[in-house]
Amino acid sequence: MKPISEYMTKSIISVVDDTPLIESLKLMRREKIGALLVRDRQDEPIGIFTERDLLAKLDVARPERLKNTVMADIMTRNLITVEHDENYNEVLDLMRQKNIRHLPVTQMGKIVGIVSLRDIMCRYQESLEALFAKRETQLLANIEKIRESEERFRTIFHNSAVAITFADEKERIVACNKLAVNLLGFETKELLNKTVRSLYPPEEWKRIRSYQIRQHGKDRHLETQVYDKDGCLIDVDISISVLKNPDGEITGSIGIMRDIRERKQMAVKLDQSLRELKNIKSGLDHHAIVAITDPAGKIIYANDKFCEISQYSRQELLGQDHRIINSGYHSKDFFRNLWKTIANGKVWKGEIRNRAKDGTFYWVDSTIVPLLDENGQPFQYVSIRSDITKRKGFEDELRTLNKNLLTNANALKSMVQEREKAYRQLKETQQQMIQIEKMATIGTLAAGFAHEIKNPLAVIMQGMERLERAAIKRNAEEEMPYIKIVKSASQRANDVITSILKYSRSSQMDMKPVDICQVIHESVSLIRNNAQLNNVQIHESCSISQKIVYGDQLMLEQVIFDLMANAIDAMPRGGDIDIVVGHHIPQKGSQDQGQVVIKIKDTGEGIPENRLPKIFDPFYTTKEPGKGTGLGLSTVYLIVERHHGHISVESKLNKGTTFTIALPVEDQSLLEPTMEEKKSNI
């Protein structure tokens, strides 16, 4: 509360006690004051004179006697004072009790001012007016804030990423935002005043009513279905909240809906993928030796095949590194080079001799793939191996036999020549076996990759799509480059896994007689638009008499398509692709089988000679990093081999590349060349 000193008149006007009344009245009129302080000749305050004293004197005296009246005759001698710091409310109560209108105010025993009831009331009125003005300003400011808040709510409501509807106490829709209109397909005026019940199937409305949301006044979140304007059902995720007035009475409800049709479809696809992955993993565990290690080389996963061949239990292997099966056969430089390769994010391939728990040795053909994080650093290593112990033993026998043959070269020259021929054939077969084993290993790897990587990768890609949409809505441009980098890397990883899955399924062939010319024509039709966009012309020549081979048409189309796609990639500035089909006719008496020969020749950049021997190896690619998985030609090689055919490649830098495919014909008796073929038989 305020002290009385804030309401007093600080300029004190006083007169001595023998001052004539008439002069005092003139002084009060001139100074426009209602009270005078009366002092004696020693300047001590002895009383106070107010208008009320004058009125009291007039009641008992005749006016002519007032001329001789002095202040001592009329003043109030009972001088009542108050301290300057007393509360003005208490002072006001004192003045009411004593029925006085003026009081001297003292400070440390000295009169420092006079307070009057009129001064207090004037000041109080001014305070009220100031308070009312302040309250009015605050009220106007609050009204403006409410208006701005309503505008913000309206903007958020109509631009929300979810569908929102408001219903009144009778469950009629009274407001809806743009997304609700778009989701349900109604016009806004059509949706307003519709009952909420009309949007739900009867059984769903019965289920929602059973929750008694309005009766209990609680929010509810659930998945359900609603009708759109055309009567089609839409899967939605909905949150229902009740609205109450200040008295706690329910006045309506708000429904927030999200379209979850896409999520439902993805859930179905996910279940299908999980079943497929389970089957693929089962196949992988029956064939390949698979282990996963952390960056330090500690084993964190070992499949059943690894436990079987190493004779260690899974508990014995987990947490150990591969030194537990080190045979001591390989040098420290061998393993130093291995670690250097995979630590730099590159795939390592090679043959390793290991030792089982019982001390026996076994050989494995190994491929170690580093899994890289967003910074390009390995965070896990996946090792896929196949048992080649028997093959290595056979190779040892061959080396021993070759040594014996060389020691008897002079006496057994003819035998040596035959053995050398057999050895070359065996080496060729061996290389084919190695290639097939490598590709089979990669194929069986598909289950492990799909199980361990593809599922979380799909979650990452879905999450990045939502993050991108959220960033676009927030105009968070600084986040977009990072989101695009993660999306690109995720898509790259998904492409690799998809290629591996496609590769693993290449063994499922539907063999039957196939028109090879029709296969080529279909493949060219599929890729012609892409070729034209890249300024590449494709020329077909297929005029052979016997053009039926025994095989899987879709697989053969994939072979032709993949080779043409590679040819287009090799001609960034455009060029030509020539596809020529002819016969390879064996000589009479020869055991060679008649074949249909397909040559696919481009005018592209060519392949360096040192890369040609590895061109069909899995994960080997001549393309720039990030533009190829290295599985395309491996898949082509595998399909041709499974058709009992053969594929080869010839290439010169800046002069183009030619792939030659030879496939056995279905009926050898029909293999007779036409006159045209005799002239230009390939």
Structure description:
The protein has 682 residues and is an alpha+beta fold. A hairpin with a 2-residue loop joins strand 5 and strand 6. The strands form six sheets. It has a five-stranded antiparallel β-sheet with strand order 8-7-11-10-9. Strands 13-12-16-15-14 form a five-stranded antiparallel β-sheet, sandwiched between helices. The longest helix has 61 residues. The protein is 45% helix and 23% strand.
Features:
single chain, 682 residues, alpha+beta, five-stranded antiparallel sheet, elongated
Present the secondary structure layout.
Blueprint: E1 14-16, H1 21-31, E2 35-39, E3 45-50, H2 51-60, H3 71-74, E4 82-83, H4 88-98, E5 102-107, E6 110-116, H5 117-158, E7 163-168, E8 173-176, H6 178-184, H7 188-191, H8 202-210, H9 213-216, E9 220-227, E10 233-244, E11 250-259, H10 261-285, E12 289-293, E13 299-302, H11 304-310, H12 314-317, H13 332-343, E14 348-355, E15 361-372, E16 378-387, H14 389-407, H15 413-473, H16 480-504, E17 512-515, H17 516-533, E18 536-542, E19 548-551, H18 553-569, E20 575-584, E21 595-602, H19 632-642, E22 646-652, E23 656-664, H20 675-679
Helix pairs in contact: 10-15, 14-15, 15-16, 17-18, 18-19
